[in-house]
Write a structure and sequence with these properties.
There is one protein chain. This protein is α/β, with parallel strands linked by helices. The chain has two domains: about 240 residues, Aspartate Aminotransferase, domain 2, CATH 3.40.640; about 140 residues, Aspartate Aminotransferase, domain 1, CATH 3.90.1150. The protein has 13 helices and twelve strands. It starts with 10 loop residues before the first helix and ends with a helix. The protein has a seven-stranded mixed beta sheet, sandwiched between helices. A five-stranded mixed beta sheet has the order 8-9-12-11-10.
Amino acid sequence: MTRDKWHDACFETRAIHAGQDPDPTTGAVITPIYQTSTFVQEAVGVHKGYEYARTDNPTRTALQMALASLEGGAWSLAYASGLAATQNLFYLLAPGDHVLLSDDAYGGTYRLVARVIGRYGIDFGLVDMSDLDAVRAAIRPTTKLVWVETPTNPYLKVVDIRGVVDLLADHPARLVVDNTFASPYLQQPLAHGADFVLHSTTKYLGGHSDVVGGAVIGNNPEVFETLKFHQNAAGAVPSPFDCWLTLRGIKTLAVRMDRHSANARAVAGFLQQHEAVERVFYPGLPDHPGYEVAARQMRDFSGMVSFTTRSGYEAAAEVVGRTKVFQLAESLGGVESLIEHPGRMTHASVAGTGAEVEETLVRLSVGIEHEADLIADLRQALNAAVALAVPAD
């Protein structure tokens, strides 16, 4: 939990150097992959800071230092997946506690709360987190965690982080912000008063669709000790190679997010003009209801865009099945563009819960390809959807 010497440097510099000093043994510029399960001890209980790789590993330490620096936190803990990180935060709860969850949360988070955590006496409720009055009304005396995504998945609602912090000023509940869609380059929830930041590092932080991981970042030293115990005791830790891949991705985070955001802005503008599209959800559009809040708490608006088609599920299925540059796949945040149907893919687990998504909804993870190719690909797929809706003579 010591402060990294790069803490006063700009973000782009910290992304390359924080926690990643040259190897003291060889001078290697890149952090080594410490692919070992155990470490020799000089005597019983006397070691160089490492004894067993589930507990700690030097490559993981470098990643955790980098993540803490990028989010402006005192500490970070890395996990084998975003859901493993989520699970470790839920270990802070006890039977009878209440979790307040966004009504537009990632389907895997909802599934974990509703079908796993809920079996152990943890209660939960759903609320539109973009409506602060609704959040105020939904907070209970037993609420211990308020779980925010901003922008949300998949409708890209924007939540006023500082507004929620103010609501909790006299309440013991802790605020968790899932910052996966924004990345620490675009948004830093701890600076707005959040207690914890959560990431699926699989997404923008890794950035290349080649690694699965998660992380929690915070400032409270007592909670760090508790979560560190949980990390070791439950054991869902990332491998050294996974940590190394994530570190490699972080180095280019800033330049990638600039390109993701620019491309998404162009794609969203195009979608607004196409006759097959009914609504476009992108916080960077001035008519988005969360635009002003997003502009205040984000550097840019990221690379996620969702939209609904005018002609029902068949049109949405036609679009996701016809794109070529946009590849049909779950996940997001990689350099390549992806397209999916949330209702039948990433959010199938919320069907019938009141938090289900529309059958006409399509979600895009806009990559860093040339915007002209991305728009041309979407145009041909949407034109096919229009033709599908036109009755034959």
